[in-house]
Design a protein that fits this description.
Strand order of the largest sheet: 1-2-10-7-8-9
Oligomer: single chain
Largest sheet: 6 strands, mixed
Number of strands: 10
Order of helices and strands: HEEHEHEHEHEHHEHEHEHHEHH
Number of domains: 2
Radius of gyration: 21 Å
Helix content: 40-55%
CATH architecture of the largest domain: 3-Layer(aba) Sandwich
Distance between the termini: 71 Å
Low-confidence stretches: none
Mean pLDDT: 93
Number of helices: 13
CATH class of the largest domain: Alpha Beta
Length: 366
């Protein structure tokens, strides 16, 4: 017996087409983010650039991911008109997804640890989202699935879909943008690109792109304290888990996420939380602005690589990401009381940073 089933619906297809148009129009109104020079002594022979992702409409690197995730979910037919969207997020991804959900008239719920910064919670709610808190960081996944099932919604699941939602071959992804902006610099092909591991999507996109475009650039991924990515990558054990959440919001996970592609990474660097926080406080004086904790993690790893290049007599450039602005962390990383309550001593990393900027030597003892 021959038969057919037609599940198409003109109304659904019309909504999908309009939703894609709305998202693409929003992207078309947004200029690319700037590539800033970080001042280093000319005699070092190393140029350092920060891709300033804080200039996106929602203020962080996660704006790119949220756009890609919505397009991916819509074009897969997972999100349609009035679909509640649920996401597990420690903050910035949820801020950006709340923005796109409101753009499309969709309800949005962010499932997050109760320790998420108040500034990020306020931003999510300002964009029309609702925050749903859990006490254990690892519970965000199961709680997100439960809510999606209960509400008949869609769990966006950035940690599973980040590496596949973005076109790593190009199409104005962050890697292609970096290389286009470096085209007229003296070291147009950087020696290193340095990023953090959160979902794993950014490192996967950049690592794949470097190979696809046959660049000699290497990819270094920094990982904060209490995150499992570094240990799992070092030992080849993707089952590694941790019962402690990372203090550095946006990067670091208690498990190896499905979007993390370790084979695309050339080097990983473990960064203590105190070092990440000391770095953002130090570079405020250099940049004249505050940056978020993940940017501090990035720069701590970058400074180690700069020193290594100097010691080896190599000249070249390094690119990293300025992931978001420091205004989101006034009551956490920039609050002395908050730092003291967590038993963090910033004096050691502060001395390392001062010595590095004066001499080019990066002396750390873990």
């Amino acid at each position: 017996m021959i038969g057919s089933i037609d599940r198409s619906c003109a109304r659904t297809r019309d909504w999908t087409c309009e939703a894609v148009r709305v998202i693409e129009a929003d992207a078309n109104r947004s200029a690319d983010t700037h590539l800033l020079r970080y001042p280093l002594p000319a005699e070092w022979g190393v140029d350092l650039y920060l891709k300033d992702e804080s200039t996106h409409p929602t203020g962080s690197l996660k704006h790119r991911l949220a756009r890609s995730l919505f397009l991916y979910a819509i074009c897969n037919g997972w999100v349609t008109e009035n679909t509640p969207v649920i996401e597990a997020s420690s903050g910035s991804t949820a801020v950006s997804e709340a923005y796109f959900a409101r753009l499309l008239g969709l309800p949005f719920i962010a499932v997050m640890p109760r320790s998420t910064s108040p500034e990020k919670v306020a931003l999510i709610e300002w964009h029309g989202g609702r925050c749903h808190f859990v006490d254990e960081p690892g519970a965000i996944y199961t709680e997100s699935r439960r809510l999606a099932a209960e509400l008949g919604g869609h769990f966006m699941d950035q940690f599973t879909h980040a590496d596949r939602a973005t076109d790593w071959r190009g199409n104005n992804n962050i890697a292609e943008s970096i290389f286009e902006q470096l085209a007229l610099e003296r070291y147009a092909e950087p020696t290193w690109v340095v990023v953090g591991a959160g979902t794993g999507g950014t490192s996967a996109t950049i690592g794949r792109y470097l190979r696809y475009r046959r660049h000699n650039t290497r990819l270094a991924v920094v990982d904060p304290e209490h995150s499992v990515f570094f240990d799992a990558w070092r030992d080849g054990d993707t089952s590694r888990t941790s019962d402690k959440g990372s203090l550095i919001e946006g990067i670091g996970r208690p498990r190896v996420e499905p979007s993390f592609v370790g084979e695309a990474i050339d080097r990983m660097i473990k960064v203590p939380d105190a070092a990440s926080i000391a770095t953002i406080r130090y570079v405020e004086q250099v940049l004249g602005r505050r940056v978020g904790g993940s940017t501090g993690t990035n720069l701590w790893g970058v400074f180690a690589l700069v020193s290594e290049m100097i010691q080896q007599g190599h000249q070249g450039s390094i690119v990293t990401l300025l992931c978001d602005g420091g205004e989101r962390y006034t009551n956490t990383y920039y609050d002395d009381g908050w730092v003291a309550e967590r038993g963090l001593d910033l004096s050691g990393p502060q001395a390392v940073l001062e010595h590095f900027h004066a001499t080019g030597e990066f002396r750390v003892a873990y």
